[in-house]
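The data are quoted verbatim here:
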Amino acid sequence: TNMRKLFLLLFILFLPFEVINLLYKNAEYNFGDNDISRFKNVPYNIQIANSGNSLGEQMDYSNHPELNAFKFSLLMQPINCDFHILEQYIDHFEKNSVFIIVLSYGEVDGILSDEVYKVIKGRYYQFLKSNYIEEYSFFDKIRYCAIPVVYAEYPFYKIKRNFLKYEEPEETQEKSPQKKCFLEKRLEQDSFMNIFNTTYPRQKQAGIEYNKQYVLNMVHLCNEHNIHPVVVTPPLPANTVDILKKTDYFDAFENLKKSIIAECNACQLEVNWLDFNRSEEYIHHAEWFKDPVHLKDEYSAEYTDKIIHAIKEMGFLQPLNQENKNAF
């Protein structure tokens, strides 16, 4: 019948679109910078976990198979999403576990720009429940989950690069307009402040209050569920520290830190703090960094070891015996 023919025609037209749609969705959210596949199987009885953006991603627990560890961090993740992710998965933690709040250089008095958030927003619709997404929109749910390929930029490029794992030669990448869209920007020392100010534009006191509120939200939530919150500020090399010293960045950082600690003391909330952002050990080893803020992969596990050692010295996780203390 004509109806059957129409149905068959629509099916033939729809099938290629749906295949491309599924391939793109897989390429966009299960590979590359937006890989959220691990959030589909978050373990229970977590003993230690961390939040954060790319500076949280550099945490490497591989030297500690005895710990049930998990990374809730994602590239360019804003601090409000750190909190909402913790809200959703708070029941996956053991009692007396540790949650590391990775506070990046951009989250002192800066707030992730709307332009950057629009690029990464879709990934949160893939695994966060609607009540944990700020300004949730049913239209966005359809857009990002049902028909993402319709709104995608360069979908075939992403399918080729992320899903089919095709690597273009470097000379081709340099000429490719997609490179800036899909590859993490390589920070160069002379462009650090420009990226700093455009990705996390500084908002002065308003930015401090914004970031303080979300850190306190996470601290409150941890205290309510018998989880020990530890705020960690990642290390920076000398050149980056020198650049930041020319601004009022470290004044803003001390303002934020003192304000958080004061409020926690007033509310009788536990909060612990580990500062690496001016650590002499890291400042004098620029060769440990792959760019102005990120450690090279081979130094990430050692950095994580130092954090876990300090946490154990606080009396959390497995307490250190004297022999272990002498090893550091």
User: Anything to note?
Assistant: Residues 53 and 77 are 5 Å apart (CA to CA). The first helix runs from residue 2 to 29.
